[in-house]
Design brief:
It is a single chain. It contains five helices and five strands, in the order E-H-E-H-E-H-E-H-H-E. The chain is of the alpha/beta class. Helix 3 (80-90) runs parallel beside helix 5 (114-121). The two termini are 24 Å apart. The model has no long low-confidence stretch (mean pLDDT 91).
């Protein structure tokens, strides 16, 4: 079994990672921690460095528990939601775990919702953590 965790270093992402560790232990699964940046002129080197540091820190937390783990930084010109869904399909992921933030309807309308995209479009079960 393979569990994908969408990770950006936020508190909700850390909670998602903690749940992924529990699921991985219960189902003898591998955890794949993924961060997504849009790329091109929208993404700066500092953001790539920060995302890389977040992934390394997250991997250490999982490795310390003896759980099989890998990380992936995606910079493919897509929104994070699209990136996670496409990557999950490419890698035959069995479960996606993501942290969510509470937003108003207007906030979702103005800024979109990557979590909503993942929930609707993913080919596998999606677990959300607040």
């Amino acid at each position: 079994m393979k569990i994908l965790v969408g990770y950006d270093g936020s508190n909700s992402a850390k909670d998602a990672l903690a749940l992924a560790k529990k699921h991985a232990t219960a189902f003898d699964a591998k955890v794949i921690i993924v961060s997504s940046l849009t790329g091109g002129s929208v993404t700066h080197a500092v953001e790539v460095e920060h995302a890389t540091e977040n992934l390394e820190s997250a991997k250490k937390m999982v490795d310390d528990d003896g759980i099989a783990c890998e990380t992936k930084l995606l910079v493919r010109g897509m929104t994070p939601g699209e990136d996670l869904v496409d990557y999950a399909k490419e890698k035959a992921i069995d479960e996606i775990i993501i942290g969510i933030k509470r937003r108003s309807k207007v906030g979702k309308l103005l800024f979109g919702s990557n979590a909503q995209y993942v929930i609707i479009k993913a080919h596998c079960p999606v677990v959300t953590v607040k």
